[in-house]
Design a protein that fits this description.
By secondary structure, the protein is mainly α. Helices cover 66% and strands 2% of the residues. It has helices at 21-51, 63-68, 77-91, 97-123, 131-152, 176-195, 203-220, 223-228, 240-258, 267-284, 288-294, 296-315, 325-331, 336-356; strands at 160-162, 170-172. Strands 1-2 form a two-stranded antiparallel ribbon. A hairpin with a 7-residue loop joins strand 1 (160-162) and strand 2 (170-172). Helix 3 runs parallel beside helix 10 and helix 7 packs parallel to helix 14. 50% of the residues are buried.
Length: 361
């Protein structure tokens, strides 16, 4: 809403600042952060009251979790979504189609995650929504988003897969791009969901990745910067930097309460929504492969689960002591804080590698 104040800049120059994406991105970060700070404690108290025993803990997980995490409420993603959505609506250009597509995916995946968390809490079981039904709903939302993005992007590469490190290397997928884009969104949502297993483990790598894509969206959406860096120019995607700012601010606010020992868990409502948002931004900016680099930690977590399942079904043996892989390292004797901080370091390194693709081509 505040974006439209910039139109008053012709009459009063002080309002010109609202035209700048950088200013509104900073405003979105601060607004979302304070929103979560203000309403977070009330949400935690309400969720703790409503959930009673909190999030069910896997009995086959690390033994210490049954002692340290029992009774902790879940659905902390409500804090993130409410802060991010409020801040986005306040600071973003609501006439921008990409903003609404990302919000559609974020809220759609969040709704699926909410139902999953609700079933877990009410049934007092770590098993929630059926996997097939959940994936079907996610695929439907992601497919609609990918189609909308392909319609919003009228450029020559609207249905093409672009490759980093190489100038003008693209593979035209035609109508199959909608399937590919939908797959990226679904994969991103579920990979973040798998990573969310320890206090603070998922939220920091998500914020690192979102910060990278805030920069990518800003550069790709600028004629001058995209031309200088030899990037594919995608008009309108610069506004997604504001959405990224809102997600970062809300994530920082959540981390305040999720820092070990966590007062609240993110839950599927948060992890699915954040992953879906990240995936949709990557599709909109035509940086799907770069997402796999920057979000390499999420890829690693997902691959560890796939390898574990395939190995057990084919040979009856497990490759890891427990999957996802962060639990494997816990079983090896790493403390929770060691796993989390070391995985954060990995996410920072991968982010730097991913950002290097903007210039190395």
């Amino acid at each position: 809403m505040l974006y439209f104040l910039g139109q008053l800049g012709d009459a009063l120059t002080a309002f010109n600042v609202f035209r700048y994406i950088t200013f509104r991105t900073a405003g979105a970060v601060i607004t979302a952060l304070f929103f979560v700070f203000m309403f977070g404690p009330r949400m935690i108290a309400l969720l703790r009251l409503r959930q009673g025993k909190g999030q069910p803990i896997r009995k086959d997980g690390p033994a210490g979790h049954l002692l340290t995490k029992k009774g902790t409420p879940t659905m902390g993603g409500l804090m993130i979504l409410s802060g991010a959505v409020f801040s986005t609506l306040l600071w973003a250009n609501l006439g921008n189609g990409y903003v609404w597509v990302v919000l559609f995916v974020t809220l759609g995946f969040g709704a699926i995650g909410f139902y999953d968390d609700y079933l877990k809490v009410t049934r007092i079981s770590y098993k929630g929504f059926g996997g097939r039904q959940r994936l079907l709903l996610e695929a439907l939302i992601a497919g609609i988003a990918a189609f909308a993005i392909s319609q919003l992007n009228s450029g020559a590469y609207s249905n093409s897969l672009l490759f980093p490190f190489v100038k003008d290397l693209a593979f035209n997928l035609g109508y199959f791009y909608i399937l590919f884009g939908g797959f990226v969104v679904v994969a991103a949502g579920n990979s973040v969901n798998l990573t969310d297993g320890l206090d603070g483990l998922a939220i920091v790598p998500v914020m690192v990745a979102v910060a990278c894509f805030a920069l990518i969206a800003y550069l790709v959406g600028s004629v001058s910067f995209s031309d200088y860096l030899l990037l594919n120019y995608v008009p309108g995607t610069g506004e997604l930097a504001v959405v990224c700012g809102a997600l970062i601010g809300a994530g920082l606010g959540f981390l305040w309460f999720n820092a070990p020992p966590a007062q609240i868990f993110m839950g599927d409502i948060g992890s699915l929504a954040l992953g879906g948002a990240l995936g949709s931004i990557a599709v909109a900016t035509k940086h799907e492969i770069v997402l796999a680099i920057i979000g390499g930690l999420f890829v690693l977590e997902t691959v560890s689960v796939i390898v574990q399942v395939v190995s057990f079904r084919l040979t009856g043996k497990r490759v890891f002591r427990m999957a996802p892989i962060h639990h494997h390292f816990e079983h090896l004797g790493w403390t929770e804080s060691q796993v989390v901080i070391r995985f954060w370091i990995i996410s920072f390194v991968l982010a730097l590698i991913g950002l290097s693709t903007l210039k190395l081509r």
